[in-house]
Structure formats: C-alpha cells, structure tokens
Design a protein that fits this description.
The protein is α+β, with helices and mostly antiparallel strands. Helix content is about 25%, strand content about 20%. The relative contact order is 0.20.
Length: about 180
Amino acid sequence: MVLTALLLATTAVVITPTTAGTIDRDTMAQLGTQTDDVLATAHERNALIEAALYWDSQDGQSGWPTAYQPGDACPETIADEPLTLCLLLEETFTSRFYRYNVYLDYQTQGKTTETEPLFVQGTPGRNAVTATRSIALHDGMELTHSPGGTLGGNVSKFYAEDLDDPTLVNVVEVRVVVW
C-alpha cells in the first residue's frame, strides 16, 4: 500500500492555470513590462534603428530570414556582429520558452499604415502582450545589411515610403508581440 502511494505521488501530474497554454494576469503584466524593457534597452543602444535598417538594397527585401525560429543564430550586420535586438529578444524570451514576432509599422503617403514583418515565429496566443517604440529614419542613415549604402540612396527599394520630407524618410514603429 505504501509503495503504491509512493508510486502515485511521484508520477502525478500537476495541472496549473498555465498547463493549457494560458497565463495569469500577473504573469502577463510581468511579460508586458519585460517586453517594454527590452524595447527601451534596444532603443538606448540604437538597436531598433539597426534592425529597421537591416535591408538588402540589392534584392529590395528585408535581410531578416523569413524562417527565423528560436535557437537560430541571429542575423549579422555588415560589421559581422549579430543584430542587437535579436540578441536581446533571444536572451530575454527564447531562454524562457516564449515566442515572439517583430513587426515594423510605417505610414504611407496615402496616410495608411503598412507592416513589414521582421520575423514571425507563429500565431500569437490570446494572452500575447505587445510593446512598441517609434524611431525616425533619415536619408543619411546607413543600411546595416550587406551591401549597405545610405537609406537616402536606396529609398526607392526600401520598405517604408519616403514621406517627401527634406531629410526624414519615415517614422517606423517597432512592434514586438510575445506569448
């Protein structure tokens, strides 16, 4: 009898509120704060601009791999350094088995909002949290994907339309969704 009870106790499965893939409000609030903190840190390190300018001017497309998944090596800049935003997201969320998508939202000349996905790891769950930060992109900024060049010299192939300001190309909102 004692052995049976011991066997049942060691093989029992504990069902928690997160077992079905949902998370409680406190955990969601903490995750939201952490997501916002990652974006604030990335902004301070100019990593949001680095990521937004990771554009292949030859192919006219994002340099981010379309099939980027947790555990993949972070894409590297022209300087052969991993993208800082990718490293921050990996360190903060992948290590704790969270998934995330990163999007760049920008305004068109027609005053509509378009979205350029940097990488998508799946469809967010209903308990996903979102954080955003806006950055201004200017003509003289350097693209961070090979072959490089200035944004102003490659604006016709760039995802965000030039808003016809003398130096400002566009204001991009970096949006990170974590679940």
